[in-house]
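Model it.
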Amino acid sequence: MKYENNEFQGYGFVSDDDLVSKMKPFSMKIVAAKLNKKGLGRTKLYELLRCKGYLNDNNKALEEYVKEGYFINLPIIICKRLRLDKKHQILVTTSGLDLIRKLTV
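Modeled.
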């Protein structure tokens, strides 16, 4: 699906041949499950990463950590009541998972 309006350019579904699909990154929920630490769920991970300066107040990874390959800010579009909202999902790469493991020791 293509949008005529440039406002939504770069947003959409991830195809099989896309870089994100090939990297097999993890959602924050999966990262919390892999860490398997009592009391450390998805919400606490976001809080920890914001506190340490890896994420901004909107839970978006800072560009320097995206460039270093720790996180991916995946733009998505959500349709709510016939209105399109631009959002993002943060994904964690395997090197990002190693970084988070070190933070939680």
